[in-house]
Amino acid sequence: MHDTTWPLAGILPYAARRFPKNRCFLNQEGHSRTFAEVHERVNRLANSLRDAGVKKGTRIALLDTDSMEYAEVLLACFTLGATYVPVNYRLATPEIANILGRARPSWLFVGQRYLAQGREVIDGFDFDCQIASLDGCTDIDVEGLIAQGSPSEVVVTVHDEDTVGIMFTSGTTGLPKGVVQSQGMQKRSLSMGWETYPRPGDVRYTASPMFHIAGWAIVFCQIATGATSLIVPQFDAQVTANAIRDGVLNGCFLVPTMMQAVLDQDEAPSGREQFDTMLYGSAPMPPSLLRRALERWPECNFWNMFGAGTESGLQTLLRPEDHRRALAGEDHLLASAGQPVLGVDLRILDDEGNPVPTGVVGNIAAKTDCVMDGYLDMPEKTREALHDGWFWGGDRGYFDAEGYLYLGGRSRDMIIRGGENIYVAEIEIVLTDWPTVIDAAVVGREDEKWGEVVIAFVEYEGEPPTAEELRELCRSRLASYKVPVEYHVLDRLPRNPTGKVRKNELVQSLI
Prior knowledge:
26 strands; Rossmann fold; 511 residues
């Protein structure tokens, strides 16, 4: 073990020295804090927490929507070498109790909205956990801790091998797994998306909540580069559309359905727009949506970001030039997740770990310095994901001749009908080509004759498509055994807070 040359805790002081008067955080009411102000507040908070007994390795949980204070607590954790445990605020009380009971935090920071849940959960613990608030709803709160703390720098030696975070997976397919993240992993994660970084002074917004790696990591990258982070409690399409139209935002991270919602709230160009970057993930971009977005923001660069973020960071990028190729007639590129980023050895392997030929679907495996230490207290799950130096995240896909990755869906999304493997992502792409379909989800249902049959769910806006129209579309584009036998037309698909469709709920609805 050796001392690190630049701990994660050094990023905020670095930014505060370079950009002291730049806005670090901005909220939807227009209130902001400069890098110098945030640096001092984080120092004061860290010193108060240290005086209260927080030290390297202490676990600090957070349960609330996004706020400047939420980000400052995370930054204070880095400063102290404490371990952050952000919790999905949309979970039910028993689910929160399960996560926190496994993580065993010493502190829980909550907002007013989740105070009752937090107290109920803590009362059931067999260990001590101090509750504090992010918004003044408890006796111990962030502003009070900041007011009483010293502004002096806190110096704690944190090694790359030390655990700095435990982030729980969304749990859409079962019991959430606690992903143990080291400082070394997080440092490597920061550099993987360098191509998409903002410029100093840019203002960007991520709709992914900060309890998710896509939310927190993007904000942290913006801090590192001297850019401003617009922080909104929860995604609001109207707020986002207004911020773009008013020239507040230079860039966003959204999922495609959120992009659709922003465009639906949009008005005519104001002449003040400075919007030049759209990062997106979690789902492919329908060609019709890309065309609509580029008509509205013709100077915008689009980036599709794919990876096992919580466990292994960013893995591939579909870059702006790829999107332009797609618009010029190579539509198939929009179904791709792009090409591997620098520092990631990405391969497609069969179930025995052997490479498969180009064009053949297999397991996506990554070898990279950005990888988790494992799943908290789940050694068998850890061995399934980490073996022979490779991370297997459960995703499946194939490479084409140009080295573009196409997702075949997660292993659970493979349907086996009469011995034929069907990868649902291919069908979902076809369904989203219908003009009023904005997203699609395909699942399998048990069938006595075929083993499984294909069932389609679509989310629409405007005129709902008929089942027969969708069937004819699929028949024109897919082999007959891939064509869904049923079509469910919904005004909204069920989603988790990161925008991913809850396919388990769709499967349950078929029972």
